[in-house]
Design a protein that fits this description.
The structure is a homodimer of 604-residue chains.
Chain A (H helix, E strand, L loop, with lengths): L7 H11 L17 H19 L3 H7 L2 E3 L2 E3 L4 H10 L18 H35 L2 H12 L3 E3 L18 E4 L5 E11 L8 E10 L9 E7 L1 E3 L5 E4 L2 E6 L10 E6 L6 E4 L6 H37 L23 H33 L3 H37 L9 H9 L9 H12 L6 H18 L5 H25 L4 H6 L1 H29 L6 H17 L1 H13 L3 H4 L8
Chain lengths: 604, 604
């Protein structure tokens, strides 16, 4: 039986052989128990739950979707049972503080569990992951009272959480929001406004929903500088912790979306009856800063969602290709008597599978590595190291979100192509994966916004130190690879691309600060593409170095796996990196056409 | 009010200024009336019908879809009325022979009408275009009796037509089909078999459906060499032309698809009660040859479908970008008092629109040009010219289908990205366009199969003459462009890419005939990509040459349009062609990894 959702051997490779996740146990008391055996057990449990419970209801979630009646949202019938199971297993807040109900798990390990869960049923998972995210905000910025009121119930899934940013006229431009907060005498605020695109804004999975809400206190400055963050529960919470009265948060609509049907995307009206009360979370007018904390985590999570869809698509496509009998071997195309073979034998299908394989492996390594960097940014031995890894998280977040989800959409589309006509039929898994994954390129900041973040903020952050540190890591990997004869050729190609990235990054950074700033930003997305290609090449090279080293002492059954890791690098170096060099050449043109063309040269 | 579906000025440009479609009127009696005025009138009528009737029911088609009950398919409620209107307007067989009910219109002109119709409602159009295609088969291969029985009713939309190739185990490998034809004493055949993925295989728009069916006469050879083509009506036709008894063609299921919901995709059982009678169309065992005639036209049509979706997506995205107010100008990003602007002002959005603009314009020019080549292959003055243009049709078909639909999917996705979160909501047009367009990459031969056709068949066809002729055309355009100072720079870049294509085409062609044949075919799709980039560059250059020339004597209102044409070329030359050179570099690697990797190096 083929593996579902993900390639367990590759997960083991990344977690144990590349990142050596068990070494994290030495850094932090909470992690002390996470030796190799425990890590394996945790991932295995997540895998079992994902395959046995989340995956079987994924299609039901897509087909049934959510319905709204009289302000109440009904989720797909099986979701509640599985949501309860999920919480019984204590999976909702794996990386959060155990004192509040979290599991205190290393991020590196949680990445593997998240891959299985999201690959199995990502629309379902949104209810869970947003709850953790909202909880994390409270954990970080909340008063002791707020933490006591909300946290344990959220981390155990008794209540869920959301994130209320977007308004009809304030999407990418959060600063344009108009939701108001009017101070009450008791220190609370009356909240009035309309929010849209709220994932899990209303549903029937939990008895209360806690909304972190961005709003402007009356009289606060315009733009992002006047935004504060509030906690607004669906039902108020009495002092004894029991549920109080309805807090005037009304679900006025749910969106009919192309994908993620199992998750409710709600429009919420706050305070239409003047009766919506919230408490300030963090400081006045510092709401954006607080949201950014959540946003970085949320962006990485979106990368996980996209990657998990791509990973699942790859496993499905591979299985289909091995079993679908169609056509003869190309070398026998003129011989009608030759036997039909699995499409896995056809060169173009194998190319597609190699595209999927190399991209998914690079994604997995990058996504897990960013999680590892989070662990290190919190618990590395020295402050200097912590700062270094924090810088890596910052720089790599737009790649892990923007570049990864762009590629994830392509991988899912490639998977559909492997299925041929069956890929377009909803009975098979590809259509849903492609529809679901598409939103990951849009939400939590479109991928264009990620690219602007990379060029405008991350590149020059801290005088460019994080970027320089990252180049240092890449060079170390290249140097290691060049010492291994079978990798030398590919390593040289990766080195060429890394050097070119350094040149182009300086060019782009300088251009962005000069008179051609608009042209620079018109090339931000292509710059993110080329940077992402390079980062993926680095990941594949790192993998190949580890594989080549471990190959020497490998058990027989592991040999093909390690060889396959090296093949991914070779494929990428031969087929993608020449194109990456072309992307760099285009970036050095820094085309200004898009910003210089007059408006009336477009069709009216 | 913004233009819907397409850019009329650009259609005029391609039809009149580039292809000079009115000159076709001199070549053929049927075309004699098609002077500029008539052409404009025909296109205007199509545009009106498309916008007033087809477009408004597109969403209904998507939402309602088709239903199957007791073997009967019900199409969306409004489809029948519009189908009748469409046929009253005599739009079903625009390019077919008037003696059978066609309109005898130049293909070049029909391309423009097809763009409007398919851009407005492509799922609806499938019923119509397949009918024309099936009719064309009968016109070409049918006996006088078959023509008399079927053609007029089909070309006037009283009856519709289909194309029955695919079976559950015979998709891309048509030769594997098992549908049987058993000769009867009266010269007819009893047909028995199961066909799937039949667009419009059953519906309620017309009183009869005529199925061209691929089947194997008992005792015929295995593979494609033993396949014959039959005409199988849903209801038999009496000698007086009236409908006779039901012909045992039973619709056993319809597919639940990701897109094109308005079109029924049927499973058909033929002869389950031993009562399905067909007549041979063309010669015994020559069914594939006949189907190929239809297939080339069908493949070009799929290119039209993909392009029309992309074109519509571009017009929607442009309109949205001009009207959606969000964020401030980048140069005032730090000034919260600056006014919010349309997203059309943001560099990344303008880049996206330029990607869409340049691709859509190149697509339009290529698609119309291939139609023009069909006209010329039929009616050019000399046999030599006819042969030349026939060769162009052959070589350009995989580009017009495979490359165009790959890009069309990306353009639709880009359009969704311009809409941001609203793009993912089904209320807005982007989700449907993206879902609908995706099948164009799969059906009528997946784009991988198109790429194999290009590399394995078209490249070396007729000793390479068509390909060489095509290079000749490109060189002519380049030479003209180099004489125009403002185009010289871009022309030089296009020239570089064209020369590289020539080198790589020889390399790929030679490799495909040598021991590395599998590696060559593992690079067939990337070769199609690079070839397509080059063809698009040629199209954009051709457009720019015409625009630059016409600019000199242009009316004031046309100046921005012509300048915009030149901007598309410049954008493409600066941002895409360097990447195309990278693609060529990758092709010269001719990576064999995909075909050399051992099966067990993939996950099990």
């Amino acid at each position: 039986m083929a593996q579902l959702i993900s390639d367990q051997r590759d997960i083991d490779f990344v977690v144990h052989e590349i990142l050596e996740a068990h070494t994290l146990s030495e850094l932090n008391d909470n992690y002390a128990d996470f030796n190799k055996k425990t890590i394996d057990m945790v991932i295995k449990e997540a895998k079992n739950l994902a395959i046995k419970e989340l995956l079987p209801i994924n299609k039901e979630g897509d087909e049934t979707g959510c319905t709204l009646e009289n302000g109440k949202v009904t989720t797909p019938a099986s979701f509640k049972r599985v949501f309860d199971l999920f919480n019984e297993g204590e999976w909702l807040a794996p990386t959060e503080d155990p004192q509040w109900g979290g599991q205190g798990m290393p991020f590196t390990v949680a990445a593997a569990t998240a891959e299985y869960f999201n690959g199995a049923n990502y629309p379902f998972m949104i209810y869970c992951t947003l709850t953790q995210g909202a909880g994390h905000l409270i954990e970080h910025f909340g008063t002791e009272a707020q933490k006591k009121t909300y946290l344990k119930n959220m981390y155990t899934g008794k209540w869920t959480g959301t994130m209320l940013l977007t308004e009809p006229e304030a999407g990418s431009d959060v600063g344009a929001l108009t939701t108001k907060a009017i101070p009450n005498a008791d220190g609370t605020y009356n909240i009035v406004g309309e929010k849209i695109f709220i994932s899990g804004g209303e549903h029937d999975l939990a008895e209360n929903i806690i909304h972190p809400v961005l709003a402007r206190i009356e009289g606060a400055p315009a733009g992002t500088r006047g935004i504060s963050l509030f906690l607004v529960p669906k039902y108020r919470v009495n002092k004894d912790g029991s549920l109080g009265q309805f807090n005037d948060v009304i679900c006025t609509g749910i969106e009919h979306k192309m994908g993620i049907h199992g998750n409710s995307t709600c429009s919420l009206s706050l305070g239409t009856r003047g009766n919506c009360v919230g408490t300030l979370l963090g400081e006045e007018n510092k709401g954006m800063k607080a949201m950014f904390l959540m946003m970085n985590a949320a962006r990485l999570l979106v990368g996980v969602q996209g990657f998990a869809c791509a990973g699942a698509a790859y496993m499905y496509a591979l299985d289909y290709a091995k079993n679908r009998i169609q056509g003869r071997n190309l070398t026998e195309i003129m011989n009608p008597g030759a036997p039909a073979v699995p499409i896995f034998r056809h060169p173009d299908v194998r190319r597609q599978l190699m595209v999927m394989k190399s991209n998914v492996e690079a994604m997995r390594t990058l996504i897990y590595y960013v999680h590892y960097c989070i662990d290190m940014s919190k618990y590395a031995a020295t402050d200097e190291e912590k700062a270094k890894y924090h810088g890596f998280v910052e720089v790599l977040t737009p790649i892990a979100k923007g570049y990864v989800t762009d590629r994830a959409f392509e991988v899912c589309s490639q998977g559909m192509q492997v299925y041929g006509g069956y890929g377009f039929i909803e009975e098979y898994p590809m259509a849903q994966l492609l529809r679901d994954v598409r939103i990951t390129m849009i939400y939590e900041g479109t991928n264009g916004i990620q690219a602007m973040d990379l060029l405008g903020r991350k590149l020059g952050m801290n005088k460019g130190k994080p970027v320089m540190d990252l180049f240092g890591e890449m060079e170390t990997t290249i140097a290691r690879a060049k010492d291994i004869p079978i990798l030398e050729k590919a390593a040289t190609k990766v080195e060429e691309v890394v050097k070119k990235l350094a040149e182009v990054a300086i060019h782009m950074g300088t251009t962005a600060m000069g008179p051609k700033v608009l042209a620079a930003f018109a090339n931000a997305h292509p710059f993110q593409d080329a940077t992402g290609d390079t980062v993926f090449a680095w990941m594949l090279l790192w993998r190949a170095v580890t594989a080549a080293q471990n190959l020497e002492k490998a058990k027989k059954k592991d040999i093909p796996f390690y060889q396959g890791v090296i093949k991914s690098l070779e494929f990428y170096a031969q087929t993608v990196l020449p194109i990456t060099l072309g992307r760099f050449a285009a970036l050095l043109n820094t085309s200004a056409v898009a910003v210089e063309i007059e408006d009336d040269m477009f069709p009216s």
